[in-house]
Automatic annotation (TrEMBL):
Protein name, as recorded: Tetratricopeptide repeat protein
InterPro entries per UniProt: TPR-like_helical_dom_sf
Keyword Repeat part of the UniProt annotation: yes
Molecular-function GO terms, alphabetical: Hsp70 protein binding
Amino acid sequence: MKRPIGAIADCDRAISINPDSAQGYKFRGRANRLLGKWVEAKTDLATACKLDYDDTANEWLKEVEPNRIL
């Protein structure tokens, strides 16, 4: 992902259109993770897994959880 800030804006729009789409939360979580926004990343990735479990999103969530305490 080369432009995480742009990706977040795109995902925000996608989520506003379809708030039940796990993909928007998954990729917004990834972008937040790349920017070091650990709390936001955890929230988005957990939501993505809740809506539609995904192994990749779950792995990213495991990487984010220890960092959100920092």
